[in-house]
Amino acid sequence: MASVPAVRMTGITKAYGATVANDGVDFELIPGEIHVLLGENGAGKTTLMGILFGMVIPDAGEVRLGDEAVSFGSPQDALDRGIGMVHQHFMLVQDFTVAENVVLGSVSPFDLMFRRAAIEGTVAEAAERFDMDIDVGARIRDLPIDTQQRVEILKLLYRGARILILDEPTSSLGPAQIEALFSGLKQLRDAGHSIVMVTHKLGEVMELADRVTVLKAGRSATTVGKGEFDERSLARAMTGHDLPELPPPTGAEAGREPLLRVRDLVVHAGARLHAVHGVSFDLHPGEILGVAGVEGNGQRELLDALAGVSAIEAGNVEVGGRDMTGASPRRLREAGLSVIHEDRHGWGLVLDMSLADNLGLAEVATGAASSHGFVRRRRLKARARELLEEYDVRPANPDALALSLSGGNQQKVVLARELANEPSVLIAANPASGLDVGAADYVHRRLLDVSKEDRAVLLISHDLDELLKLSDRILVLHRGRILYQAPIREVSMDVLAMAMAGSAPSQGNGDGAAVGSEDM
Amino acid sequence: MATPREAVHPAPGSPPGVPPAASLRGRSSPLVRLLIALAATVAIFSALIAALGVNPVDAFNAFWDGSVGSKFSLGQTVMIASLLACTGLAAAIPFQAHLWNVGGEGQLWAGAVAAVALALELPDGLPDWLAITITVLGACLAGALWGFIPGILKATVNANEVITCLMLVFIGIALGNYAISTLFPSQSNQTESVPFERLLPNIWEGTLVTAGALLALGAVLIAIVLMTGTSLGFQIRAVGLNRNTARISGMRTGRVIVLAMVIGGAFGGLAGAIAVLGINGAVVAGFSANFGFLGIAVALVARLKPLWIVPSALLFAALRTGSSGLQAQTGISATVGEILVTVLVIMLLAVGVIRLRYAEAAQ
Fold first, then answer.
1. Closest residue of chain B to A88, computed from CA coordinates
2. Are B214 and A293 in contact (CB under 8 A)?
3. Does residue B46 sit at the A interface (CB-CB below 8 Å)?
4. How is domain B23-350 classified at the CATH fold level?
5. Structural domain spans, chain B
6. Which of A354, A355, A374 to mutate against chain B (most B CBs within 10 Å)?
7. Looking at CA atoms only, how far is residue A462 from chain B in angstroms?
8. ∠ Cα B49 B329 B208 (to 5°)
9. Which of A482, A486, A455, A461 lies closest to A473, judged by CA?
10. Which residue from A286, B143, B296, B347 has the highest number of Cβ atoms inside 10 Å of its Cβ?
11. CB distance B8–A16 less than 8 Å?
């Protein structure tokens, strides 16, 4: 390279106690490039970027900006030097306006009170300069998630950031929103900004990256430029081995009794935006039915209603031909329905209990693991050992507390428990979210196994790749209604993306006017 | 969505190394921290005593004599500890289910009233052992009822158990005063006395220790078996640690909540029976020196573990009897004893022996 790198990090080392998060990592950012930092969970991506942004103080190593060695004591130091970071969870004050958030910290409260119009003017000007269509007077809480993200980026640009770090920026966006984000990032790059994007999604790398650095187990495994990588080689660099192709979905046999039948389901939302307004579908034996949609379009309400933990206002639900509308989780479980909840810590595990206890929750609840009111400890533990072995959970120690495991291993524990009693219907919501490639692949294989055995899976996910890989059929939820559904071989990406963004394709049953008027 | 709790990566920006205060709270063993708290309490209390014009050495001698220095005073401490162990269990079991049963005081009073009523009203023809058994069980039942009400309200309409429990404390105390003034009035400020043969027998000559101490020990054993061995105990823990996961796993969480409160209440009621049949022989006005509330501290110091309730209850009981000795020998008001307990609880909180964060307390 002829030019001086914008950032050069060499020999970065950072340990947390016995855990070495970064072990002599080298990283280089060229001016005007989009550089993707790729790696599995725990590979040290966030730590490395935390060091660049001044949030984490490295134990050893050097950070250079241009020709100058720097050492940041706080994010403010980094911001002063033109480095900004957009975190996975936005750092915006929900009750402030866009303009207020953008200038927060860089103007005095006095100015904020008495020079509002002028401030809004400069922020609006900045938004225009960066080609962002944002109403600077709107309150953050009223804005959709992708606009909030743009506000985060604008905030950094407004403060003069030339180097932008984005941590998993696509995790809560739909395909259309992702596309908009990417084109915005490319624009910024072309205007001379340097961008680091942290992700573990391979597809995004292919689309966006000028160069890629892969971190593996705290070391920089490789840095490659455009044209020198494909998804396969990157996956290998991340995991250290090849992942075999998933077998294709098997497809349901038509004409058989559905295992799960949902008719005109209506669920009310609490504080959430969109509930479920009259959803109907059948889930057949041997089938994986994917439910797609941008987060917050009724998926969570659908999940909670089907899991028996939130009230059903109208409509009915049949499991295996029996009416189960409004049944408790206990009765649903007895009827052969299992749930892998998307909120692993809130609804999947008891973090402060041992793995044996976590695996035995359902058995203790139903009495299968107790006799005369006493827990059959030995049986519980033996069973746990078997399951931990079978599902390759590490550590395979039944006495370990659930909270001591990594996310992937925790998910395997949930999976083991929910599949152990061979449910006829499995509802899995974002079952691989937050998991690294290897663990996600494992979860996917298990789901495919379920469908092979003439049982069925309802897969609710906001990860389109996951849905396209596993589903036999896909339906799209938008604002609590089914806007589109089709067998997988008839699904086109364009139509899917449009449906997720809310424009009803011709064969959908959505009614535009009604959809608009029933916002809650 | 919940953010993952990762053991590997602490929150970005957390300072490197562990500050000394955190190591005091986090690293050293609970026993060491308990000793630190006791030492600090002694120091503060000595200063207070000296300020009141009494030689701290004399004061501690008096304190020692009053709590464990003689056979008789040791016996008194044991009986107070029996009460506190039961009210401690009344708090600990529901706490494990993440239910803040702060109604031990009410459950204690309800049990005491039921005990005196049964002991006085059961037909004369009954054999004494049967009458005593029925009386004790009746007291437990009354306490259980006092626990059932907040429990069922919590399970059905999600009424805050702290508030309902506190309301029932007032009702329980009022019920006790009603028993004293109207139901079973006597010459002095207490109910009629229970006939001698219907009291719990003395089991240690030269002291006032009665079979009530054995009942308390039995209660602790029952609680240990409940929490470590039974399916219900497992479910109480699961519901306490994560009600959502327990529910989606098929547990009847409402039922578990009610049962945890009922069991806690029964232990509180048992404390009432011990007070009436094993200590006072009647419901005496103001007999409970906040024993029900003190049970909360007993449970927290024991980290909600039934076995540790025993030493914890003995500690708090010794403070109580010791400060009575202090008053008798030095003339310092017994309210100083209240201060002593308060100072200790604050010190225990300060060094982290008592933790209000539930997850840590339970495991």
1. B3
2. no
3. no
4. ABC transporter involved in vitamin B12 uptake, BtuC (1.10.3470)
5. 23-350
6. A374
7. 13
8. 120
9. A486
10. B143
11. yes
